[in-house]
Amino acid sequence: MKKKEIPVDGMSCAACAISIENTLKNTPGVKVAHVNYANHAATLEWEEKEVSLEDLQNHVRSTGYDLLIADITQEELDEKQKEAYLNVKKKTIYAGILALPVFLIGMFWMNMPYGNYIMWALTTPILLVFGNQFFKNAWNQTKNLTANMDTLVAISTGIAYLYSSFNTFFPEYLSQKGIAPHVYFEAAAVIQFFILLGKTLEAGAKAGTGEALRKLMGLQPNDLTVLENDKEIIKKTNEVRLGEKVLIKPGQKIPLDGKVIEGESYVNENMLTGEPIPVMKTLDSKVFAGTINQSGSFVFEVEKVSANTLLSQIISRVKEAQGSKAPVQKLVDKIASIFVPVVLLIGLITLLVWGFSGVEEPWLRGMLAMVTVFVIACPCALGLATPTAIITAMGRGAEMGFLIKDAESLEKGVKIDTIILDKTGTITEGKPKVSTFRQTQYYNSADAKALYSLEKKSEHPLASAISAYLNEELVTIQNFKSITGNGVKGEFEGKSYKIGNLKWLKNEGLGLDEDLEAEANQALEEGAIVVFAAKNEQILGFFKIADQIKENSKKAISRLQEMGIEVHMVTGDQQKTASYIASQVGIDQVAASMLPQDKSQYIKTLQAKGKKVAMVGDGINDSEALSVADLSIAMGQGTDIAMDIAEITLVHSDLNHIPQALGLTKKTVKIIRQNLFWAFIYNVIGIPLAAGVLFPAFGFLLNPMIAGAAMALSSVSVVANSLRLRK
What we know:
Layout: E1 2-9, H1 14-25, E2 30-36, E3 41-46, H2 53-61, E4 66-67, H3 74-108, H4 115-130, H5 132-143, H6 149-169, H7 172-175, H8 185-207, H9 211-217, E5 223-228, E6 231-236, E7 245-248, E8 257-263, E9 265-268, H10 270-273, E10 279-281, E11 286-287, E12 292-293, E13 298-304, H11 310-324, H12 331-355, H13 362-376, H14 380-400, E14 402-404, H15 407-413, E15 418-421, H16 423-427, E16 428-439, H17 445-457, H18 463-470, E17 478-483, E18 487-492, E19 495-500, H19 502-507, H20 514-525, E20 529-535, E21 538-549, H21 553-562, E22 566-570, H22 575-585, E23 589-591, H23 596-608, E24 613-617, H24 623-628, E25 631-635, H25 640-645, E26 648-650, H26 657-691, H27 695-698, H28 704-722
Parallel strand pairs: 15-22, 15-24, 22-23, 24-25, 25-26
Antiparallel strand pairs: 1-3, 1-4, 2-3, 5-6, 5-7, 7-13, 8-11, 8-13, 9-10, 9-12, 14-26, 16-21, 17-18, 18-19, 19-20, 20-21
Helix pairs in contact: 3-4, 3-8, 4-6, 4-8, 5-6, 6-8, 8-14, 12-13, 12-26, 13-26, 13-28, 14-26, 14-28, 15-26, 17-18, 26-28
């Protein structure tokens, strides 16, 4: 049994993925086939003895798509997808430019000289050049005995175009029989433009799906410095073996997982924990690929090679999570799969019934009735139902402060009953600040300059928070010394100043009264970081450093709970800090010290209980959880990776926009369903009338021109209904 993920070329919609998947599943020898439109890839398991990869490629090619079985780089694949999106976008623009005058002539200037010839000249390239994919896809669907929206578009616009072309160049044929030679170029042109517009919107939303994975992969540097016999040798990351010694210099990304064997430094592990404060790494400390070294240098021994690092596991799980979300078949395509054959059958029955009816000119009347059936069945309203609502909702969302990725995101938002919030950067600001400086009687304003200047010389991650709080005049510090993991000390105007942790200061012989220590312990209980300052043998006080809660967080969480949504907080921070922050904003369910895989597992556990979960995060460490969640929401001031994965992005990182976004999703999906219902009902009523069901009893036969006008009216009603979202 062979298993492999293979890139797929030529997909332009979710229905394409369904079609390819069905083709592969029906191929003898294929055990598992899953085609993911999100990352344009097929995950296959097949018996090599029964079917070869080349056979699978040929089967897929027969449907108009391609399996890229030859070796292809991610960059080449990304370029192909980008080209496909730009191509459909260009076609849509050109089709729109040509369709506008056709629409104006067909609806308002029907009697202008040479109007039919002008419309024919403008409509022909729309159908045969910019919209030819509909005819190609329809043919491929027909060969596989299936039908979708493309089939309906191709048949309806094709018949409208051929009938109109015949009447343009041979108008006397119908005129001699007392029938007006109407044309329907505007129907064919406008339908194709709007369907193209819908595909462009969808392709644009999906084009950036792989960006998150590319950026995650970019966290691992391609080159590194290996120490061999005390010599520095540059190697490719994927060439390094277990046990080799890697040198990390200031500011470098750590390329692999390992253990520090020499040196020490602070390492920013934000991508793993979400916490902004770098972690001290000394002898035997673990380091992880993708994290960033600060100012020191160290050597580590490789314990996991490129494919097995924690970062690689995160990338793999994000990819799996994105792939596990099977493409949602559009409701329009579901309707079309039944609707198309029914319409074709009705059209054929109409022709035959009229042909053998015995009335005057039976076959001509039958042909006109059949054309009227196909014209009134044109999927203009069906095609407009989703894109007009999406465009309106996206515009409204942007005005309100959040960006919605696509129609699928809107549909998911309706079902959400549980929300997972990251702490740092989501509920809190994500920037540690000094909230208070508890002074003792020994402190005076002159000491502020010394403490400020001492911290300005320090490379400790919290030094900038303290210096920003003091914001004093810079003075010269004598005998400055940094004691790694403890603090800094120096002299100013003959006095010795120290800033650091309490244990170090006590070891240096400084005492602390019980009341001050009790206050410091209380700050620690609240999850704050406490840094003490001293002058000579006296404690000057302590700085309370904390990540501030955002102003609107508590109100937003309360609103979500009022909507009946369960709110959880999941964070990589310690339990004390997490519990304190949760208590301040009204969250009862808290999970602390969570690594990326723990967060995603937490969501899967909730999903297993039947919950529909939305994840709100801002960091690389949230990317796996965002991928696993039913709906992913990113903070606009977070990392690009989080925003690339997210289906909704909060532009201003304000949690108050979440209840607004969920409310808009419910309204939008309701509008889309209304649009589809009315478009479908319009056809249910219109098609029998077009076929002539009332002719035997009342002598009423629907004129093709009226059918075209009715079709246009249905489209207008759909657009008007969608515009209600603007309110």
